[in-house]
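Open question from group meeting: does this chain pack into something compact, or does most of it stay loose? Before anyone orders reagents, we agreed to write out a predicted structure and look at it together. Recording both the input and the output here so the notebook holds the full record.
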Amino acid sequence: MKLPRKRAKEMIKRGVAEDMARKTAGSHKGAWRNAMTKAMHIAFPVLFFEDMGLISLFQQKEKFSVVS
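Structure tokens returned:
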């Protein structure tokens, strides 16, 4: 899914507004930077990853952090 047109189409299917999807998909920023965009959070919410059986590293950190 490297072509911006394909990325935008997939984001639109996942509920991202068309203009936001096209702007994010056409961005020249890297994958890690695009991962922090609102469009990606709409397209791939935390529940998406939990359903795949993945755990949140942030939640694990919070769970095991010691309050001093």
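Observations to bring back to the group:
Residues 4-64 form one domain.
Residues 4-13 form the longest helix (10 residues).
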